Hints:
The protein is α/β, with parallel strands linked by helices. It has one domain: Rossmann fold. An 8-stranded mixed beta sheet has the order 5-6-4-3-7-8-9-10, with helices on both faces. The relative contact order is 0.17. The structure holds guanosine-5'-monophosphate. Guanosine-5'-monophosphate (5GP) binds next to strand 2, strand 7 and helix 5.
Amino acid sequence: MQLLEERIRRDGKVFPGDVLKVDSFLNHQLDAELLDAAGAEIAARFEDCGVTKVLTVESSGIAIACFTARYLHCPALFAKKSKTSNIADGVWSAKAHSYTHGNDYTMVVSKEYLGENDVVLIVDDFLANGCALKALREICEKAGARIAGAGIAIEKEYQGGGNELRAEGLRIESIARIASMDAEDGIRFC
Ligand code: 5GP
């Protein structure tokens, strides 16, 4: 998506550890018009899939998930990051590793909001090694929900998570795909 790529080029900042900071429009301050266009683009790619729920993980996936859900006319649902290892009975849970914080955590979704009649579109702001996506997929599998695919704002393709999951049969649509990035040479899109 050209609009998003242009914005990444203009305002994205490359940090050590393969971290792209997009705090001025996606991760801290939110550009609602850009997010609206990004949500529409992701939704368009899955419009015929009968999606009943857009699933993401807090907190940085929530904004893009909401705008996508608005165009698919269904609820957005976010997995919460649990601070305790005592997981209650009423939730689906999966362990994950945080790319940006470097710690392990458990994500949980209430059984009240996700079940076997759901068709899920998983949405997230970034796709790097694929850990968050795998945990969200596991939650859907535990719930018996069908996964239509995953819609991602920014995929760092060179990190391999996306292509590994595609090889496992998951449909992934990323609206900006980064082929390489570093502080000196900048960002190159696929
Ligand atoms: P993965 O689990 O695929 O390795 O990483 C995806 C998750 O880590 C996303 O939910 C996102 O919040 C975070 N993440 C991964 N790479 C980046 C990055 O370059 N910049 C930012 N801001 N977040 C990232």
